[in-house]
Amino acid sequence: MVLPVYVYGMSVLRRVALEIPEDYDGLDRLIADLFETMRFSDGIGLAAPQVGKSLRLFVVDTSPISEDKEEPELKDFKKVFINPYILDEWDDPWSFEEGCLSLPKIREEVSRPSKVRIEYYDEDWNLIEEEYDGIRARVIQHEYDHLEGKLFVDRINPIKRKLLTARLNAISKGKADCDYKIIFPKKK
Questions:
Q1: What amino acid positions are annotated as catalytic residues?
Q2: What pLDDT, on the 0 to 100 scale, is given for residue 66?
Q3: CA torsion, points 57, 63, 66, 71, in degrees to nearest 10?
Q4: What pLDDT does residue 72 have?
Q5: How many CA atoms are closer than 13 Å to the CA of 19, on its beta-carbon side?
Q6: Rounded CA gap, 167 and 36, in Å?
Q7: Closest Cα to residue 172, out of 13, 46, 55, 17?
Q8: How far is residue 121's CA from residue 107's CA, in Å, rounded to a whole number?
Q9: Longest CA span, the chain
Q10: Which segments of 13-133 are extended strands (E)?
Q11: For the whole model, what pTM was predicted?
């Protein structure tokens, strides 16, 4: 089922997400819904807090951008990350324009280390530790930030962030136009 995406101003996006117990009821359905919502919304990653669930879970599927980028490994990079923890980030930081389904129509250059080592459980509850680089590392770092209560705008130059204040405030007040279902903060 396609779920609505929670946007800037929703408190769930600013909370550190909780670990998921292995017997979590409905986990398979939530994972399927995350993938379906991500595809419907033209995303390449989606974290549980973005659909209102403060849980340490995100999914990625970079196949939609595999033809645009010079990284053939993006074609088959479709994964589920349950209770992930980034163990290390290293190598020279590089800037890349990021967007986010929770920040409709906002894109900015974000600098991140180019390599990451992450520990997580897959959907069969196998504990995995892997290293990624390039765009795969960036997608993981971006989605992982959601589990830590951070958004990519927290990582941009403070002057650029200040320039986005009016657009961010508009989103939090229910003024955003996009092609997918969204949930706005309740108006006071």
A1: 143
A2: 79
A3: 50
A4: 75
A5: 9
A6: 28
A7: 13
A8: 30
A9: 48
A10: 45-47, 57-61, 78-99, 107-121, 127-133
A11: 0.95
Q: Within 10 A of 29 (CB to CB), how many other CB atoms are there?
A: 10
CA dist list (Å): 182 to 17, 93, 155, 166, 170: 20, 32, 23, 19, 14
Beta carbons of 141 and 111 less than 8 angstroms apart: no
Tokens of 108: 């900015």
Closest CA to 106 of 149, 165, 41: 165
pLDDT computed for residue 65 by the predictor: 85
Alpha carbon distance 22, 49 (integer Å): 18
How many whole angstroms separate alpha carbon 144 and alpha carbon 58?
Answer: 8
Q: How many other C-beta atoms can be found within 10 angstroms of the C-beta atom of residue 94?
A: 14
Chain centre to alpha carbon of residue 77:
15
Per-residue pLDDT of the chain (188 residues; tens, 9 = 90+): 999 999 999 999 999 999 999 999 999 999 999 999 999 999 999 999 999 999 999 999 998 887 766 677 888 899 999 999 999 999 999 999 999 999 999 999 999 999 999 999 999 999 999 999 999 999 999 999 999 999 999 999 999 999 999 999 999 999 988 999 999 887 65
